[in-house]
Write a structure and sequence with these properties.
By secondary structure, this protein is mainly alpha-helical. It folds into two domains: 180 residues, Cytochrome c-like domain (Cytochrome Bc1 Complex, Chain D, domain 2, Orthogonal Bundle), CATH 1.10.760.10; 81 residues, Cytochrome Bc1 Complex, Chain D, domain 2 (Orthogonal Bundle), CATH 1.10.760.10. The protein has ten helices and seven strands. Strand 3 and strand 4 form a beta hairpin. Helix 4 crosses helix 6. The longest helix is centred in the first third of the chain and has 15 residues.
Length: 277
């Protein structure tokens, strides 16, 4: 935390990839990805899906050892069972989700042009459940992470491909971008201060991961949690680390943030679920 405070005091502005107030998302994406390619020239672009393990050989070897017998393996099996179990009314996730929910993680989040909002995969799962008379699942942990783990596992190797279909979607993208680059909390830090400007630098013994690829590997089994958790749970944790008030999971702010970050990682392979420290 002392190192985090030091970074907060030292960083006066975001010096990463320039993003203008009304930029073309495609141009933003190209600038963003090129920034990390130049910052880490020895990293293959596809490897950014592995987060910090793409940029540090020692961390990578430890992570690869853990991934041989991953702590989320049982969750994948539980998720497959849940996905294929009919609801009380006889219907199932297949009645709501494309391809029965199998191999679709790379298409989320997407912008629903009818509702004019970003739809994440956890939100789609709970909407499906409520539509069929089932209780909504906890959005941070538990059964929803098992379902997400199986869907992510069935999507491994597929390419992140989030689209921005219209001006309303572009506004959601811009909202997520603004959130990412806006200072908040008592430490007065933006997400980009850690994961753009200071990516590859250390906070105590931990390396800060590059922003590109952050959305490719969820849900994640974090050693700090000792369980699987969702991306929005991690967003909340980051907010709390800079002493800012966290938003609720699946809030508009977090959905738009996920939309922005995922679009910026377009072209990277999906490789969830995953282990992180």
């Amino acid at each position: 935390m002392r190192k985090l405070l030091a970074i907060a005091a030292a960083v006066s502005f975001v010096v990463g990839p320039a993003v203008t107030a009304h930029a073309d998302p495609a141009a933003d994406q190209a600038t963003f990805q090129n920034y990390f390619k130049q910052k880490f020239p020895n990293v293959k672009f596809a490897d950014f899906s592995n987060g910090v393990y793409a940029i540090d050989a020692d961390s990578r070897s430890q992570w690869q050892a853990i991934e041989e017998f991953p702590p989320y393996e049982a969750a994948i099996e539980d998720g497959e069972r849940m996905l294929k179990t009919p609801f009380a009314n006889g219907k199932s996730y297949a009645d709501c989700l494309e391809n029965g929910g199998i191999g679709i993680a790379h298409k989320y989040p997407y912008f629903d042009t009818t509702k004019n909002e970003v739809v994440t995969l956890p939100l789609a799962i709970n909407e499906c459940r409520k539509k069929n008379g089932e209780k909504a699942l906890n959005l941070n942990r538990g059964d929803i992470t098992s379902l997400l783990a199986y869907i992510a596992f069935s999507s491994r190797g597929k390419t992140t491909s989030v689209e921005i279909p219209n001006d309303a979607a572009k506004a959601a993208f811009e909202s997520g971008k603004k959130y990412y680059y806006t200072r908040r909390g008592q430490l007065n830090m933006a997400c980009a201060h850690c994961h753009v400007d200071n990516a590859g630098k250390r906070i105590r013994a931990d390396l800060l991961s590059p922003s590109v690829g952050h959305t490719t590997h969820w849900p994640v089994f974090r050693g700090a949690w000792d369980e699987l958790g969702t991306l929005h749970r991690r967003f909340a944790g980051c907010n709390e680390q800079v002493r800012a008030k966290a938003s609720a999971p699946e809030s508009t702010e977090y959905r738009n943030l996920e939309y922005f970050l995922t679009y910026m990682s377009n072209g990277l392979p999906m490789n969830g679920p995953a282990f992180r420290k």
